[in-house]
Specification:
180 residues, 8 strands, 27% helix, 8-stranded mixed β-sheet, alpha+beta
């Protein structure tokens, strides 16, 4: 009877510990991405399943030197892949669906490409290089972007030139690969 009690207690601790780790996943991801991009990153909720996962309320903030409140957000992401596959060298994703996307673009001038996204990508490139990770190969069979809203702000005019681009209903890409 004593061995059964100890066994049940250990099972309870494992379940409790696993649940605590599960609750920390969004914070770990946002902390990592915030450090990479050097802006606030938030995730409202992550639901992990064996072959399908959902991310709700993913937002990448904007740099303090720029005006728009955020650089990117997506209300809902559906990932058709086993989260265990991300630990493999060859990652195969059946599909990624991104729904209700916002992109905030700010440019230092109308004629140049420097702006908030060039700084974000440079921050990411500089910071990700410090992680010596095993190179991975990524294949995405089907990538869908739905309901894309884009705001563009040019800073080279006196008050800045703001444009809200027409929404894009859907972009579909197939068989994307990244080999490292």
């Amino acid at each position: 009877m004593k061995k059964l009690s100890i066994f049940l207690f250990l099972v309870f601790l494992i379940i409790l510990g696993s649940y605590e780790v599960y609750l920390q996943i969004p914070r770990k991801i946002t902390d990592f991405l915030s450090a990479q991009f050097q802006v606030p990153v938030s995730i409202e909720k992550i639901e992990l399943g064996w072959n399908i996962s959902h991310i709700h309320g993913f937002t990448v903030g904007n740099l303090q030197s720029y005006s728009l409140p955020k650089s990117f957000s997506v209300k809902h992401v559906t990932l058709h892949a086993s989260w265990l596959d991300f630990f493999k060298k060859n990652i195969q994703i059946k599909a990624i669906n991104l729904l209700d996307i916002y992109v905030g673009l700010e440019f230092d001038s109308k004629k140049g490409t420097d702006g908030n996204w060039s700084v974000l990508m440079n921050n990411y490139k500089q910071n990700v290089d410090q992680y010596n990770r095993t190179p991975k190969n990524l294949t995405i069979k089907h990538l869908v972007f739905q309901q894309i809203n884009t705001e563009v702000l040019f800073h080279d005019t006196e008050k800045g030139s703001f444009h809200h681009l027409p929404p894009v209903e859907k972009i579909e890409l197939q068989n994307l690969s990244l080999n490292q």
